[in-house]
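task queued by scheduler; priority normal; single chain, no ligands, no partner chains; default sampling; output format set to C-alpha cells
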Amino acid sequence: MQNLKKFIGSFSFDGRLIESDITGSIAHTKMLVKTGIIGASDGKKIIFGLMSILKDLSKEWKIPEEEDIHYAIEKELIRRIGIVGCKMHTARSRNDQVATDLRIYLKQEINKIKNLLTTFQKIIVEKASKNIDVIMPGFTHLQPAQPILAAHHLLAYAWMMQRDKERLDDCYKRTDILPLGSAALSGTSFKVDRSYVAKILNFKNISENSLDAVSDRDFAVEFVFCVSLIALHLTRLCEEIILWMNPEFDYVTIDDKFTSGSSMMPQKRNPDCAEVIRGKSGRIFGDLIAMLTILKSLPLAYNRDLQEDKPPVFDALDNIKLCIEVISEMIDSLKFLKEKTLRSTKKGFIAATELADYLANNDIPFRVAHKLIKDIVLYCKKKSKMLNELSMEEYNKFSPIFKKDIFEYLDIKNIVNTKTSYGATSKKAVMRQIKNIKRKLK
C-alpha cells in the first residue's frame, strides 16, 4: 500500500514536539550518566549531538522525515555521532518518551494561554473603567430586565476568564507529573533515577504506576476541556457583540478591520471576527469529543490509538490562542454609544422591579407587590404610557402607599446606584470589582 507509511506515521503532526523531545532526551541522557548506565564520554557525545540538532533547527534546517519525530531525532543523532547514539534509548520506551514530550509541551502552552487570558482581562478591565458611567439594559431571556452599568457587564467576562485560568492551573498540576522511567509498561530493571530527571525537567511529581503513566491522557483531555470552556465563554461575548452591533440595538461599534462588507449589499458591515470565533468554538468542541472517543474503551497500557491524541490537542491549542488574540484586539477597539444605551433603558419597563421593592420597603409583602406592579405595567401598555409618565393619581388608584418620591425610584441612574450589595452594578460596587480583579491580575 503506497500510503501505508503516511497512514501509520505521525511525523506530519508531531513535529512540533521536537524541542520537547530533545529536552527530554538530554535529561534522560544525563540521568544515564549519573547512574552509571552509560559512560560519561558517551553521554557527552549524545548531548552534544542533540544540542547540534537543536541549534540547526534554529537556523530553519528541517530534520529528515521518518515515521515519527522521535525516531527522526534518534536516526539523525546516530548519523551525526555514530553508533554511540544508539545508547540514548537505554532504559526508555517510545511509550514513556511520547507521554513525557506531550506533558513538557503542554506545560509550556498552558502558561502561554494564561498569559493571553491575563492580557485579555486587562483590556476588559481598562474598557470597563472607561465606561463606568455608561448605563444599559441588563437582560434575562434576552428580554429587558433591569438597568446595569456597561462596565458591570464587561467585568462578568473578566471573572469568567479568571475561572478559566484557575482551571488551567488545576490542569497544570495533573500535567506536571513525569512518566519517563515507566518504560514500555512495566518499568525498567535499570537503576534509573526518576527524581533526578524530574528535577532537570522541572516536574513536580513522578508517576506512581507505570501502566497508568504510559497510557494516561487524562491531562490532555482535561486541557482540551479547559480550552473548550474558554472558547464557550468567548462565544458568549461574541454573540453579545453581534447583537449590540445590530441597528436594532446599536449599543457599540468596533474597528472596521474586525468586520467585512457584503458582496452584494453595499450598506452592510458584518461582524465577521466575532462570527468566526463562534464557529471555531464548534471545532474546538469537536476536538474534545475526538479526545474522549480515542480513549473510550482503550485497554491498558499503550495502544497506537494514542498517536491520534495530538491533532485534536494541537488544533484546540492553536485555535484558542488565535481566538483570544483576535477578541482581545476587537474588545480593545470597542466603543459604547452612551446615549443610545441609555435611551434603550426606556424600553421594557425595566424599572418595574424597583416599584415592587418600593412597596416591599413600605411593608407590603413582596409577592403582593409583584402582582400589583404587574397590573400597573399592563395598565401602562393599554394606555401606551411608560411608568414615569403615569400621574400620582394613577399610581394611587392602585395603592395609596405610593408617594411623590416614587418618581425618584423610577430614575434610571438612581436605580443603578442603589444596587450596592457586594458584586452588584452600582458605580461604587463596580469600582470595588475593578479593584479586586486588578489585585488578582497582579
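post-processing summary
- The chain has a mean pLDDT of 95.
- The chain has three domains: 4-90, 95-133+149-342, 344-441.
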